[in-house]
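User: Sequence recovery, please. Input:
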């Protein structure tokens, strides 16, 4: 993390039982707003997940409040720094799940997989008998992944159980139960995915502790098995080793990452469309996006933030991984 940058960005999650979720939400939202902290925090009876940003002093105050919540005293956070605020507003939402798999029977607190620290991850995935699975969504995997990892090509984390059911026989075709290593952005999705596989009768299931973000922060580039960049759910869009900013921009129409090649396409117009969504948007929609982009630029020139327009919905923004990042 670059210490001389003014904004501190922290991603966190914790599976822990919360009883009075609405009361927790009210108090947490107040602390964040009073301190000028922005980002997204999701709360559910199963715990907390999110990413927030603010001054170092403001973030410390919010973290102190979170660590006072039940089961959160030793909650781990992943930190980065930014030259400017990467979020437009603060959202504290109550959800059914802090990461949406759609399987309320899956309980990571009861039976998740084995943690593997970033320093030991290479040795695990280098073994020829280890099956490595990327639990993230298709647009995230397209930006970067570990060499040799299986891409389930899921549009949403909700699709992971169905993908496993469809490929179960292939994955379990060997003479002995397979060794499976799974990973995601910040750890939360693969923690739930390993619990799901444990419930399916698999025991030798591992997941990367702290996720890709911890790996990119701790493992030297010369020793890295990571290829490409890592998508994150904020205005940084992607990060590389040492959590340095990546080369991707965010399409304001479909909320997907746009790499340098796509940015050079005739179908890419900043704030309006990208090659992935151009054909699915009408002229009226593109005119609306163009006006929103114009208003945003005018607000930036005035030193204010334009928050009047509603961004297109994406399941990942609300349940996949806003911050523990998945």
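Assistant: Recovered sequence (326 residues):
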């Amino acid at each position: 993390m670059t210490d001389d940058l003014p904004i501190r960005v922290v991603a966190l999650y914790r599976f822990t039982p919360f009883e009075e979720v609405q009361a927790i939400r009210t108090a947490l939202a107040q602390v964040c707003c009073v301190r000028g902290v922005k980002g997204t925090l999701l709360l559910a009876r199963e715990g907390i997940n999110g990413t927030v940003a603010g001054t170092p002093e403001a973030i410390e105050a919010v973290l102190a409040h979170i660590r006072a919540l039940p089961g959160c005293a030793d909650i781990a956070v992943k930190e980065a720094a930014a030259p400017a605020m990467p979020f437009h507003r603060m959202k504290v939402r109550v959800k059914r799940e802090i990461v949406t798999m759609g399987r309320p029977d899956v309980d990571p607190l009861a039976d998740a997989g084995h943690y593997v620290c970033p320093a030991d991850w290479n040795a695990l995935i280098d073994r020829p008998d280890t099956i490595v699975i990327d639990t993230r969504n298709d647009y995230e995997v397209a930006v970067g992944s570990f060499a040799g990892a299986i891409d389930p090509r899921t549009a949403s984390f909700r699709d992971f159980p169905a993908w496993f059911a469809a490929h179960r026989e292939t994955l379990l075709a060997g003479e002995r139960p397979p060794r499976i290593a799974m990973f995601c952005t910040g750890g939360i999705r693969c923690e739930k995915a390993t619990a799901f596989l444990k419930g399916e009768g698999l025991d030798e299931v591992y997941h990367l502790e702290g996720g890709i973000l911890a790996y990119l922060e701790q493992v030297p580039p010369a020793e890295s098995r990571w290829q490409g960049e890592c998508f994150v759910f904020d205005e940084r869009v992607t990060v590389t080793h040492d959590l340095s900013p990546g080369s991707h921009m965010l399409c304001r129409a479909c909320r997907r990452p746009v790499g340098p090649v796509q940015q050079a396409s005739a179908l890419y117009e900043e704030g309006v469309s990208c090659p992935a969504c151009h054909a699915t948007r009408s002229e009226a929609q593109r005119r609306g996006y163009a006006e929103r982009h114009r208003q945003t630029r005018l607000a930036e020139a005035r030193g204010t933030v334009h928050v009047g327009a509603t961004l297109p919905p994406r399941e990942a923004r609300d349940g996949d991984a806003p911050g523990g990042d998945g």
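The chain has a mean pLDDT of 89.
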